[in-house]
Write a structure and sequence with these properties.
By secondary structure, the chain is mostly helical. It contains eleven helices and two strands; from the N terminus they run ββααααααααααα. The protein has helices at 18-21, 30-51, 60-85, 92-97, 108-111, 117-138, 144-172, 176-189, 203-206, 217-230, 254-267, and strands at 9-11, 14-16. It has a two-stranded antiparallel ribbon with strand order 1-2. The longest helix is centred in the middle third of the chain and has 29 residues, at 144-172.
Length: 273
């Protein structure tokens, strides 16, 4: 699952890479590992979704931009899955390619189909604003490894936010059609927003090592609503989608994503290149 560039984090002046987390003897307990899986799966699944835009974006620059955002997210996933794997002596690839659908912990927002460009931008705005608030607080975690991962990822998510914001303004104040499509994107995705802020297990057991999603709701939603209004959008009035436990019991998309993402590794287990 390695990306084209080796990502690093900085914590107390010490560089950490996905490759050396285990080598340094850092070991997550099971609760932290389950939390790291949740964060890593969000980024991994969204990276997979965004990869579908390569060669399909409305302009060449967006092929590059969305591809780079996908690579950033893949880097975040590598860190979190590597750290999670130390609890069970499993590699990042084991966790990405050899878990079944119900073992993933991704939220349904990142699993939704790309739709048109307007819908993808709507999803990016919602998720990048959420992820920014999450990483900003997680950078102060008492778990040094999680804090280091979050501090590095935060710098990249700042760009993701800016990209989504600028495109929302461009589409919202562009043509009647571009505004309609952006609004439709928010309308379709809004039922899945509430799941981002659910305090699912094992959050309660982690104390100041983790960030309770419910604590992010006010700041995140305030910023999202302001961004929508600035782009000339109407805040959707939609009921939350049924089920919000991240178990996959209510996911309609996860199995299709994993079937494509995992097929090569499962057909040729242990293969390297």
């Amino acid at each position: 699952m390695a990306s084209t560039e080796s990502a690093t984090t900085q914590s107390a002046g010490t560089a950490i890479t996905p490759e050396d987390i285990a080598a340094r003897g850092v070991k997550a307990d099971e609760d932290i590992a389950r939390y790291a899986l949740m964060l890593g799966d969000d980024s991994l699944i969204l990276a997979q979704r965004l990869g579908h835009w390569i060669s399909r974006a409305p302009e060449l620059e967006e092929d590059v931009a969305l591809g780079n955002i996908a690579l950033d997210l893949l880097g975040h996933a590598r860190f979190f899955l590597t750290y999670a794997g130390t609890a069970w002596d499993r590699s990042e690839d084991d966790l990405a390619y050899f878990r079944d659908e119900e073992q993933f912990r991704s939220c349904r927002l990142v699993e939704q189909e790309n739709g048109d460009f307007g819908r993808t931008i709507a999803r990016q705005l919602i998720f990048s604003y959420y992820q920014y608030e999450l990483y900003r607080r997680l950078a102060n975690s008492s778990d040094a490894t999680l804090a280091a991962i979050a501090a590095k990822a935060l710098k990249e998510v700042q760009y993701h936010q800016d990209h989504a914001t600028q495109w929302s303004l461009r589409l919202g104040h562009g043509t009647e059609e571009s505004a309609r499509r952006l609004q439709e994107g928010f309308d379709v995705l809004w039922p899945y927003v509430g799941e981002l802020f659910e305090d699912v297990e094992p959050i309660a057991a982690l104390g100041n090592r983790a960030v309770a999603p419910s604590s992010l709701r006010e700041d995140t939603m305030g910023r999202i609503v302001s961004a929508l209004e600035e782009a000339g959008m109407t805040v959707p009035d939609a009921k939350p989608a049924y089920g919000s436990d991240r178990t996959g019991r209510f996911s309609e998309q996860r199995g299709y994503i994993l079937a494509e993402m995992q097929v090569l590794a499962r057909q040729h287990p242990g293969a390297t290149w």
